[in-house]
Amino acid sequence: MKIKMEKTTIVFNAIGYVIITILAVLCLLPFLLIVSGSFTPEMEIVAQGFKLIPKQFSLDAYSAAFSSPKQILDGYKVTVLITLIGTMLGLFLTSMAGFVLSRKEFKYKDKLAFFIYFTTLFSGGLIPWYIMMVKYLDLKDSYLALLLPGLLSAWNIILMKNFMKSIPESITESAKIDGAGEFTIYLKLILPLSTPGLATIGLFMALGYWNEWFLANLFITTESKFPLQFLLYKILASAAVLKTNVAGNLSPDFQPPAETLKMAAAVIATGPIIFLYPFVQRFFVKGLTIGAVKG
Amino acid sequence: MKSMFQELNRNKVLFLMIAPALLFFIVFSYVPMVGVYYAFTRFSFDGGLFGSEFIGMKNFEFLFNSGVLWNLTKNTVLYNIAFILISNILQLLCAIFLSELPGKLFKKTTQSVMFLPFFVSFVLVGAFVFNLFNSDNGVINTVLQQLGMQPYDFYVHTAPWKYIIVFFHVWKGLGYGTVIYLAAIMSISDEYHEAAKIDGANIFQRVRHIIMPMLVPTFILLILLSLGGILKGQFDLFYQIIGNNGMLYNSTDIIDTYVYRSLAVNFDIGMGTAAGLYQSFFGFVLIITVNFIIRKVRSDYALF
Amino acid sequence: MKRQIKTFSTLLIALMMMVTVLAACGSSNSDKEKSTGTDTSTDTKSTDTAADTGGEDKSADAGKPDTSKKVQLVWYLLGDAHKDTPKVVEEWNKMLEKDLNVTVKLNFTTWTDWTTKYNLLLASGEKIDMIFASSWADYYKFANQGAFMPLDDLLPTYAPETWKSVPEQDWKEATVNGKIFAVPATYPEYTPDGIVYREDWRKELNLPEIKDLNSIEAYLDGVKKAKNVTPINGKAYNEIFTMFKSYNNYQQIGGDSGVVVAKSYDTPRDIVAYPFTTEFEQWAHKMKEWKDKGFWKSDTLSDQKEAGDAIKTGQGAVYWRNAPGAGGYIMGLQTSNPDIEMGYFPFSRFNNLTMPTLSVNNAMAIPKSAPNPERSLMVLDKLRNDPKYYDLMNYGLEGTNYSVDTTDSKFIVSPPAGTPKDDKDHTAYGVASWGYRVESMERVKQAGGWPGFDALLEEFKSQSKPNIFAGVLMDYAPVKSQQAAVNSVIQQYGMPIMMGLVPDVDKAIANYRKQLEAAGVNDVMDYIKEQANKYFDSQGIN
Asked: C46 vs C39, C66, C67, CA distance in Å?
């Protein structure tokens, strides 16, 4: 019997390693190309396309991107701040909502779930939402404009509900019998048991905030409040425009930044987050949760 | 009415806990939703939302009269189905492997690496794709030539692009989706695995009988969540990869790119909203139907 | 229960406090400015009246502009700020406060999604006092839909100098439905399309001078064969399409009218959809030949590369530019690739015809909801006519961003004289100031100082005829669904034909025509004919 198990395990592992490695390589390769591209002189890319190892090494793209270090620093500051606060608050609100929806005895849970989900189906479009933000909430050029819209999303709430549903009821039952109220159950029992779910949603929220540029584009007009991704998109957009008809109107000594700049921008924006993920990973450890609490 | 108040009172805390979320959606989603009315008006800056002239279904005409709506809808739906199914299945598989394979360092590295495509913006993906497939010095054609074969003019033929597009969509979301499934697997109590092992189950059996069933709710959930958007496309994906190449539109044009092109010259708020409404409505009907069916089969898998 | 609610609320409050602090941080600046803006100081009348008009004439009937209230304006320009912009704006505000008791917050849309943003700014009714407007930013459409404030009554009182100095024709071009909705920049430009090409190769290969379609073909052919490069290496659509229009003297009507054009400048009322003409068939066949000869690549429609970049790496020879753009490109090349010599062929030479750009090619407009239009106009007036203001906002701070040219004090030198050549910190100061340019006040040469430009300008002026097409007001409302469908058809079927990418040209053209008709091109054409004829009647054009 022992031998039989080992054999199937070996087969399983073999298949697993192969598939995962192939996928990992497919994911890594393009990214490597981008990193190498960011260190290549522009003209080499134009002439020869992307390569894994550049013939000539150049820091031009990075010096163009960092041409205004204060801006980049401000960008990092804003982004980090918004990401931290947004993720914490958002996670708190999302997990509470998910918890409520996961409570079996709660009569309104399905109706509320639909209420929340419906928002992903229909939308009035950009203009009414913009008017709400600018006219009624007066969020023009405010940090709140970057923070609020990303706090909650139907997708996250429903996902969170799903994670919480997998926690056995016996635990909550016994707590209720002991006289614990809903919020205490949430805070002291469910949250600690939902670490994989929290880590997942938290990661998604953090990524969402980190990558956010659209909100800044629409609402922020003060340069020092631009988040990082937006700064980089701005540079790319200037490059794109200068190649169109509009360019005829512009001062002819505008030098459009280039392909390599796009890549350097991607590396600068992504870099820090890549280091976040391994940190978050440790929450994905098996058996951390359920086994500990026995009825 | 009385029972609702009783219920409210009994679950005061629960309602309070979900209140911020409800408020959020009312302010940011429901109130702006009145803007859907634009789809039926001819927008004027003086009138704003309610003062603009009502023109009935006229804004929808450019979609319905164009003759291509069927093809666009078909493309959009088929691509989305491929995206949803292939992505989810692949992510599920990866999650299973990543949770069961030995070798912590290997797993940690590969997981992080699989996340990388998520950060590559579609603009770069487009450039990258062009580099691979272009007829001049594209990587694929260079390799073909080195092997003594004829180079293939990718950008003139419609056939390969279905696969290329699906590949890149799946590629981009791989790491992201796998994490969700991984988290779900982690919530499976060790007890189940221990019991199974004692009973002599090998790993394939454990996967089939323990992990898979526990993942079915998540799998169905993710599919349901995506269904509402069945007619909405990944605009960036298609636009950056295909660009303005009309020769490829027959098999790669989706509703979003079509609308974008139509309105590019003369941006019209009414028509844009009308297109969005068409997409939303379809998705709405679909999800209500599917959810209803699932509810009949197994009610706790349903979305609502 | 109570205890729970307490814990819950404490947590929530703690987090909310963090959020409020964030919000407070963000808005503290703007609050400060807002408060100074709204306080109504009453007794500064005496100092103001002396300073405000600075000796300009006032029209007899309107009263003296009142600058007793301190006001904060919000302006929007297109594009990005320069890193020195905050300093420049600070100086500007100091001057404005003294002269007009006003300060301006200058905002930029940046180039990211600027059309969306521009639409949103106007549609949302935000409090904006002045915004850049242009025929290429849908000026006519917005004016017709009521986004801007009519200025006829305000101009004589609040911007008298500008009102007097801007030519009648310019005001006419800014008029929509009988009212003026923007102040056009006074900067007559000629921007015909054309191509820059490698002149050094032409000479080397002894190819004929480029002066018509045949010589262009000979050049492309020669370069391809001898140098083994793809002459138009990259996105080639613009090169071919603009050449097509100019060669056949097709005139677009009222902006981009898609496939409906006037057959020639001299026959403005002869309006057709060009895919149905024999000229189009001939052109399509020729383009197929050109494509087969390898003048551009088969994936050109998906290629994002600019042909101009390929020239820099020695892999291309031709690039589409309009005249000022050509100047910029050629001057740029002199630094990056000094060994390459470039020539320029403007397409105006096909038919010896140029038209000046519309006055509202660059202009400044006031949105409907502006709280202080009068004061805004006064600022604009100063900006356009007072050299101190003009130089500051257009060129930056003297000494930091530019210095006066020692050889001809009318012009300036940027970066300032004495800057070491490889000093990377100095980028030319510029903001999207085209909306208020005034030719007589300019201190830099057009087209980046390209010496060849002066001669070209003379040539253009000599061939210049009034622009009778651009002013036709088109909002396409009755045919907008057909127009959208036609646009899509053009992209899907027309572009590949134009680039010679279809296997069977005649079949493709037949199909294209069928698709156009199905999309409703005839309705669109009828609409355009109607609008055009109305316009021509009113202008007395035959």
From this structure: 18, 11, 10
Q: Which residues of A touch C331 (CB under 8 A)?
A: 252-253
Identify the structural domains of chain A with CATH numbers, from first to last.
68-294 (1.10.3720.10)
Phi and psi at C475, nearest 5°, equal -115, 0
pTM of the full structure:
0.83
Domain assignment present for residue B25? The answer is no
Does B277 fall in a domain?
yes
User: By three-state DSSP, how is residue C26 classified?
Assistant: helix
pLDDT digits (tens, 9 = 90+) for B71-92: 888 889 899 999 999 999 999 9
d(CA C244, CA C241): 5
Nearest to B95 by CA among B79, B107, B85: B107
Out of C119, C303, C501, the one facing B267 most closely (by C-beta) is C119
Mean pLDDT, range A27-50, rounded to an integer: 80
Record: contact A132-B28, CB cut-off 8 A: yes
3-class secondary structure per residue, C470-517: CCCCCCCHHHHHHHHHHHHHHHHHHHHHHCCCCCCHHHHHHHHHHHHH
How does residue C271 score in pLDDT terms, banded at 50, 70 and 90? very high
Neighbours of A178 (CB within 10 A): 9
Question: Which structural domain, as residue segments, surrounds residue B98?
Answer: 62-301
Taking CB atoms and an 8 Å limit, are B22 and A167 in contact across chains?
A: no
Closest partner residue to B65 (CB to CB) among C476, C481, C501 is: C481
Q: Is C310 on the interface with A (CB under 8 A)?
A: yes
B244 and C119: CB-CB below 8 Å? no
| Confidence band, pLDDT 50/70/90 cuts, at residue C243 | very high
Domain tally for chain B? 1
Helix (H) or strand (E) holding C403: strand C403-404
Question: Domain containing B267 — which CATH number?
Answer: 1.10.3720.10
> Is B48 a member of any domain?
no
